[in-house]
Design brief:
With 444 residues, the protein is mainly alpha-helical. The protein is built from 17 helices and 2 strands. InterPro entries: O-antigen_lig (IPR049504).
Length: 444
């Protein structure tokens, strides 16, 4: 029996290591997909299969039983969802429906898989550093690809509108790429602030600068907002550390410089153009003083309207379709794009896409793992009255908030394997470090 358990442990340990380093393949798979080399879907479906085997090989715990039961129910739901839409939809493209289902299930299953992976991987020495380095390397690769695409003028435009600037390099979606960069940048800064030597910090600076440039070059609000938020939070935490322990002055200096340079160069970057940013405000002098020109006010109103990027029209259309749909589609969903007439489109707000595409039952089923894990993370933090909060928890939590926030307003996360795998990994990461910190807190 012991030999069998030992053999089983060796297999799960190998799978676990493979799944950790599978993260490093992500930017490579995305670039290959951009150049029509069809291997990304193969590797990601294979990862789903290997991940499920990994769950089956876990010790017989309550979490394992719940996970297997959930995956079985989800598979049954998806089969029913597919058959209902096959019978109900006037326009039904099996390949599109199947692809969208797989992409959605990919995130949900990998969320469960990486929860187990992180729990097991966390017994290894320097496990956090390994995860952070993997993500840091990926962000560096993305930055280099973006730079080469810029130098060769071969980057894919982020927007169809000629008035908007920015490109996503050799990656398909600007929105998707900006979410990946937003989540990854928070981990990059976490890795940076944890480095102890000045030499190490200075070595990392060019890579961080390159990634910030890439985030401004994509031209989306998500990546730009992430730079400002993450650097702002990092500076605040470093200042608190200086006050408490009289150290980390270098972190404050470097991070403040990065933020200042970012703000200075933003108006001349693609995102500056897209947000109509400029150093000078247009003032008109009159006898009663100065006031902001009406054109600036109109631009501000237009900016507010642009924040939803035209999603309202399609949302209203899908609402109308859902209202007219039979009960079976209200419960099991209308499939990708709803009961479309011309061509299937997503609202690009993942929560709403899940609701209308998979129905009320599907939405509840898909969101269950997020609610379950999120509840345990928050409960663990609150039980200690926030005393376990440290730099790692704050930055990983911030990364997850940026990912989930982007999913709510910009999409391209929960049904996108390219960005979903980062969110799944980080949620598992946060779950484990909160449990570890609580355990250490209780021992004190």
């Amino acid at each position: 029996m012991n030999l069998e358990l030992q053999k089983n442990h060796k297999v799960t340990s190998k799978i676990e290591t493979m799944l950790i380093y599978f993260l490093l393949l992500q930017p490579v798979l995305d670039v290959m997909a951009y150049f029509n080399i069809p291997v990304s879907i193969v590797f990601r479906v294979l990862a789903m299969g290997v991940g499920f085997i990994y769950i089956l090989l876990q010790p017989n715990t309550r979490l394992k039983r719940l996970s297997i039961m959930y995956i079985a129910v989800l598979a049954l739901f998806m089969a029913t969802h597919f058959m209902i839409n096959y019978m109900m939809k006037i326009q039904f493209t099996a390949s599109l429906e199947m692809t969208y289902m797989i992409k959605t299930v990919f995130f949900v299953e990998l969320l469960i898989v990486y929860l187990f992976v992180m729990k097991s991987f966390s017994i290894r020495e320097s496990w956090q550093r390994i995860v952070q380095v993997c993500i840091f390397i990926n962000m560096a690769i993305i930055g280099v690809v973006m730079l080469v695409a810029s130098l060769t003028n071969t980057g894919k435009r982020s927007y169809g509108s000629l008035a908007k600037e920015g490109h996503s390099g050799w990656f398909f979606s600007g929105n998707e790429l900006s979410v990946i960069l937003a989540m990854g940048f928070s981990v990059m800064i976490l890795y940076f602030v944890n480095r102890k030597t000045v030499r190490h910090k200075i070595t990392l600076l060019p890579i961080i600068g390159l990634v910030i440039w890439a985030m401004l070059t994509v031209g989306t609000k998500v990546s730009f907002g992430a730079v400002i938020i993450v650097l702002g939070v990092a500076i605040l935490l470093s200042i608190l550390e200086v006050i408490r322990r009289k150290k980390d002055v270098l972190n404050v200096t470097i991070l403040s410089t990065l933020l200042l340079v970012t703000i200075v160069v933003t108006p001349s970057s693609p995102i500056g153009n897209n947000l109509n940013l400029t150093f000078g405000l247009n003032f008109t002098n009159e006898e009663n003083g100065s006031f902001i020109d009406e054109e600036d006010q109109l631009e501000a109103k237009q900016l507010q309207q642009d924040l939803l990027s035209g999603r309202n029209d399609f949302l209203n259309n899908v609402k109308e379709q859902y209202g007219k749909a039979p009960l079976s589609q209200k419960v099991f969903g209308m499939g990708i794009g709803g009961n479309y007439v011309d061509a299937p489109k997503l609202i690009e707000m993942d929560g709403l896409d899940w609701y209308y595409n998979f129905g009320f039952l599907g939405f509840v089923l898909l969101i269950l793992p997020l609610v379950y894990i999120g509840y345990h993370i928050l409960a663990t933090i609150l039980k200690t009255r926030l005393n376990i909060l440290n730099v790692s928890i704050i930055f990983v939590g911030l990364s997850i908030c940026l990912g989930l926030g982007s999913a709510l307003v910009a999409g391209h996360v929960l049904s996108s394997p390219a960005s979903g795998i980062y969110l799944a990994t980080l949620i598992g990461y946060l779950y484990v470090i909160t449990k570890q910190q609580r355990s250490d807190y209780i021992k004190k």
